[in-house]
Amino acid sequence: MTPTHRRRDRRGGGVLGILGELLLTLGALLLLFLVWQLWWTDVIADREQAGIIDGLEQEWGELDAEEIAPRQEGPPPIPETPQDTMVWGKMHVPAFDRPQFPLAEGVSLEKVLNVKGAGHYPETALPGEVGNFSVAGHRNTYGRVFEDIARLETGDAIVVETSDAFYVYEVSESLVVQPADVEVIAPTPGRPEVEPTAQMLTLTACHPMYSARERYIVHAEFAYWTDRADGIPEALATGEEED
To answer: Catalytic pick from 120, 206, 207, 219?
Structure first.
């Protein structure tokens, strides 16, 4: 082999070595990113949400889980419109592995969904109000408050807690839609041209898991409300509704 050929082989080997090191480095960075995205964001969000819930319980007063509040007659109290990004409630979903989480105003990723829990779509109804009270949440990463959304079945309870009341909804429908199908959060879900007459709740999350290709939607109908001062609603004591 001539000296020229040896130099070419050395140069070729050097290039391949550098390329291999770059690929190893990129692989390590990708692995670190996946660990951060799929695990560490949950750790941070869980810690933040636990602190938020503790703060709400201190502000509102802890409840006796043994005291079952009676269903109230008449229209429920409607919360005042919250300020943007403000945490103003909790959501309880007995069918979820993570049964409670904070509820904040707005659906900003950076200011709400990635750090505080579920987010109320501004301009949609408030709990107990005629219209469509609509809420977004992550299905994976950042606390994944809606991870189990596809587990919900007709009749399952979804409970919203504020400083004054519990609002109990029952699941009526689940469906998968395209991201552009925003009529699911219209005052009358699916029919934006129709004036609302019912008190509805809608949950929205990305679908399928680890993808934002579609949206998983759950609609629920208002069932009853209880005064928070009286204890917890029956739905949180049993995890299901009774006739």
So the answer is: 206
What class has domain 58-238? mainly beta
* Angstrom distance (rounded) from CA 66 to CA 42: 31
Is 219 catalytic? The answer is no
Q: Please state the pTM of the whole predicted model.
A: 0.83
Of the listed 120, 138, 207, 219, which one is catalytic?
A: 138
Mind listing the pLDDT tens digit of every residue in the chain (243 residues)? 555 555 555 555 555 566 666 666 655 545 444 444 455 567 788 889 999 999 999 999 988 778 999 999 999 999 999 999 999 999 999 999 988 999 999 999 999 999 999 999 999 999 999 999 999 999 988 889 999 999 999 999 999 999 999 999 999 999 999 999 999 999 999 999 999 999 999 999 999 998 889 999 999 999 999 999 999 999 999 654 444
Tokens of 119: 């987010």
Q: How far apart are CA 185 and CA 192, in angstroms?
A: 9
157-161 and 165-177 beta bridge pairing: antiparallel
Domain boundaries, the chain: 58-238
Tell me, yes or no, if 138 is annotated catalytic. yes
Question: What's the Cα-to-Cα distance from 116 to each of 67, 75, 126, 209, rounded to whole Å?
Answer: 29, 29, 18, 20
